[in-house]
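Database export, one record per block. Field names are fixed; values are copied verbatim from the stored entry.
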Amino acid sequence: MADNAAPTHPADAAPHGGAHPPWGGPAAGDILKVQDLHKHYGGSHILRGLSFELKPGEITVVMGRNGVGKTTLLKSLMGVVPVTSGSITLAGENIDKLKTHQRVRAGLGYVPQGREIFGRLTVMENLQMGLASQPAGTPLPKSLFELFPVLDKMRGRRGGDLSGGQQQQLAIARALAPGPKVLLLDEPTEGIQPNVIQDIGRVIQHLAHDQGLCVVLVEQYYDFCVQLADQYLLMQRGEIVMRGRGKDMAADGVRERLAI
């Protein structure tokens, strides 16, 4: 069965409980602010004074070679690992002291590298796990199945029996279930067929540009990044060494910097 993702016209997706899907942030202003973020592992200084601001309705790609701190950045934003110093503000509220489930409730969604779905649970059970931080009885947004029609056809299938592309779609849908303001994606193209990568890219663009979601995409696949980026951050050795608008990536020599 094909790993199809978004419908041809995703803006026509059926919303959950009204005229708008549950995700997305305010129409203007910064939704996520990171200031002077530092992270140490023992004697290693992994994140070195990172500062940036993200707006709703934009896709920010975070690029860099292996080991520069990209995944640690996402885990720090989610509270999976504690930061050494610095501040993280979501929709005007400081979330530094919040635990991971509280950050989900505040509006952060996270798709980890490797997907980390529950292989023995069905698609529906995996999606319902995404609502663990919400009040009991919260329904799944119907629009999830419009974004990812293949999941609608496989509601009763175990997660471990899905293809890699289908598992990635399931992981993204699970993160969207509670209605985040910001979606963090860690290497969503890893191990995925090219046609499914394009499908996932269209969903990401729809979520940001049509629905107002702020998307942070950690990725090494340059062609995917340049296709999606509204803003880019390039990391080396735990620091942001270049930043700019997505349309300027080629002129800025980002591909060449990635090869260094």
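Remark 1: Residues 6-20 have pLDDT under 50 and may be disordered.
Remark 2: Residues 194-210 form the longest helix (17 residues).
End of record.
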